[in-house]
Write a structure and sequence with these properties.
- By secondary structure, the chain is of the alpha/beta class.
- The chain has one domain: 3-Layer(aba) Sandwich (Undecaprenyl pyrophosphate synthetase).
- About 50% of the residues lie in helices and about 15% in strands.
- The protein has ten helices and six strands.
- It has a six-stranded parallel β-sheet, with helices on both faces.
- Helix 1 packs parallel to helix 10.
- The termini are far apart.
Length: about 260
């Protein structure tokens, strides 16, 4: 019976997915999608494997996701791979996860298909990992493809604090006093110093694993975003799940500011 159901899915899902794609309304699709790749550890427990296996399975699902994004015309994708809080987990798990992330990012860079941009507090990461992330960015700097923000050691509050700190240093170097800056500072000044400066804010934020909270992801940038929460753990997230998220976004009447 199980094999029969799997066989039916293999036959029916491609036809269903193709129909969903055909019916997606052009002009109403997201240009920037943020994705919280959540549930690797719980997926691993569910299949009786260790945590590292879950993280490797999650890493393997990144490339398919980027292909699905390209298919519907997405221009920017932000992937939250590791939060600042995650760095406080057991050293053995963190070391393993950092290695998996570095390998995954380098594999994406080798394809020269996407422009990679690490975002996060890289100073909190081991020097070797930070260097590998920066090298991947440099290797894809001239690639004419979708921008992929790789959020590692990322926290929304930390990003805002870093942006304000950067703004203060910039204006101080120009001879401006704190009092003078306080008179003119506005949201645009801070936005110009975010990790994603120069990019559009995310239209759609997707979180897998059934959790319905942001946890600080793109805290500043997501003020006007639409959110989609999917029950599937990240390693099980499929093309059909992605297309349903995009379809749900396209069907919403966006009310900016309300």
């Amino acid at each position: 019976m199980v094999d029969l159901k799997r066989g039916l899915r293999r036959v029916l899902y491609p036809a269903y997915e193709a129909r969903v794609v055909r019916r997606l309304p052009e002009g109403q699709l997201p240009k920037h999608i943020g994705v919280m790749l959540d549930g690797n550890r719980r997926w691993a427990r569910a299949v009786g494997a260790d945590t590292a296996h879950g993280h490797r399975a999650g890493a393997a699902n990144i490339e398919p996701l980027l292909g699905w994004c390209e298919e519907v015309g997405v221009e920017v994708v932000t992937l939250w791979l590791l939060s600042t809080d995650n760095l406080n987990r057991a050293a053995e798990e963190v070391d393993s996860l950092l290695g998996i992330i570095a390998d995954a990012v380098e594999t994406l860079a080798e394809q020269r298909r996407w422009r990679l941009h690490p975002v996060g507090a890289l100073d909190l990461l081991p020097d070797d990992l930070a260097a590998r992330l920066k090298a991947a960015e440099e290797a894809t700097r001239e690639v004419d493809g979708m921008i992929v923000n790789v959020a590692v050691g990322y926290g929304g509050r930390r990003e805002i604090a870093d942006a304000v700190r950067s703004l203060l240093h910039e204006r101080a170097s120009q001879g401006m006093t704190i009092e003078e800056l306080a008179e003119v500072i506005d949201v645009d000044h801070i936005a110009e110093h975010l990790y994603t400066r120069g990019q559009p804010d995310p239209d759609l934020v997707i979180r897998t694993s059934g959790e319905q909270r942001l946890g600080g992801f793109l805290l500043w940038q997501s003020a006007q975003s639409e959110f989609y929460f999917c029950e599937a753990y990240w390693p099980d997230f499929r093309r059909v799940d992605f297309l349903r998220a995009v379809r749900a976004y396209a069907q919403r009447e966006r009310r900016h500011g309300t």
